[in-house]
Amino acid sequence: MYAGLQELGVANGEDLKETLTNCTEPLKAIEQFQTENGVLLPSLQYALPFLDLHGTPRLEFHQSVFDELREKLLERVSAIALEGKVEERYKKLEDLLEKSFSLVKMPSIQPVVMCVMKHLPKVPEKKLKLVMADKDLYKACAVEVKRQIWQDNQALFGDEVSPLLKQYILEKENILFSNDISFLQNFFSPSPKTRRQGEVVQKLTQMIGKNVKLYDMVLQFLRTLFLRTRNVHYCTLRAELLMSLHDLEISDICTVDPCHKFTWCLDACIREKFVDNKRARELQGFLDGVKKGQEQVLGDLSMILCDPFAINTLALSTIRHLQDLVGQDTLPREAELITRFLPLLMSFVVDDHTFTVDQKLPSEEKGPIPYPSTIPEAFTKFLQENRIACEIGLYYILHITKQRNKNAFLRLLPALVETFSDLAFSDIFLHLLTGNLTLLSDEFALEEFCTSLFDGFFLTACSRKENVHRHVLRLLLHLHHKVAPAKLESLQKALEPTKQSGEAVKELYNQLSEKLELRKPSPAEVTETPSMELPLPAVPTPASR
């Protein structure tokens, strides 16, 4: 409590104890101690007895004076940090730190010492090491001081950042697996600026400040984790962090990040949920501007483009462009993906239009045109072998589901069983698909629809992919009342968790079982079927004449 006072020649509690132990007249010793260490103001000689008369303890008075002086000192330190020439102000702060640092462990003085360190752009290394070595001091110091410690201690910085990264991933997964299923509000609903206000992004932004070295460290953590786990949420965080610093106009970092302008342009597209021709040319220009030998820049740009929010925007824009091309009777040009795959998607759009028009014709003009049920082999092959084609194909399926186009959905559903890197069974796609399927809720009463959706798609992966198991249970929790009882019973059996199933699957299954149990009629409610035989009314016989 009194650490450091002796070094400054100030008496403390231990000195008073020693004085009282060795003196013959304790009262005189106490009086002398008060005179030597009290507030040396002549006017107080008359004021203190007055306070005594009011029963105010001397401790309360001195504590009040101390608190007031400490606040004044804190204000003065903050003022020094802003006034005069840079060299002069920092020299004053360094001198003040040198005089006060010995009191850093004294709780009442510690805030002043920490304030001095906070305003010093470069705290002496020796003092930083002392702070770092003491857990309590390290915890108490300002983030401005911690930055100076972190920049030369990557492991310590990693220990601080790691829990935040885990929290971020968990938050994203919680959204994807939320029991609230809706086509109106989904994973991609929040705007980029809203997402950047999240706790993790804000904490990381504050931890980095204007420190380029710390920013580079965080990027390296994100690169390493993405390469190790292939979790695309790290890509989202990479983009959000850069744009959060952009919002604060931290030019020290934004100007040295080669991805800044590209990310800024893409962020505007994500905000508007569309990539127009002008921005498409800008984005292409940035990519073309990457010179040979700048592999790391390409790697970082790949992460920015791998952000699910970027893919969502680009894929939705592609589908919109395809619809425009169908209306203009034009086909895409250049590259196999563009000249072969996109026209395949356009042919599906044409099939839909043809079928819709046919249904509107008068019955005498209608030809017996059933909805097409086959899928071109080339389409399935593209979904299996080409990542970009697969992403666009999946977004087209989300598009037709959102349009309540049951026929087109059932036609293309078989192609999803085997896709590039199992993208059709990824959390983001299944999150969006389950939300859009709520628009087709009435179809769940039909055996054909449920067999195609559950047996033909979901259940093919449930046993090997726990995330699929969770998404199916989420969907049934929301729509179980729409499914035919017999089908629901068979699905309940098929979805029963195994010993290897995780707690999340077991919890969802229990929730579903409880809901289904509540739907069953109680024995008291089951009554005998009333007889269908009705008594014949008496027919009057004609009166005899």
Automatic annotation (TrEMBL):
Location of the region described as Disordered in the Swiss-Prot/TrEMBL record: 519-545
Residues annotated as transmembrane: none
BP-aspect Gene Ontology terms: negative regulation of transcription elongation by RNA polymerase II
Cellular component terms (Gene Ontology): NELF complex
Pfam families: COBRA1
Protein name: Negative elongation factor complex member B
Organism, as annotated: Ficedula albicollis (Collared flycatcher)
Organism phylogeny: Eukaryota, Metazoa, Chordata, Craniata, Vertebrata
Name of the gene: NELFB
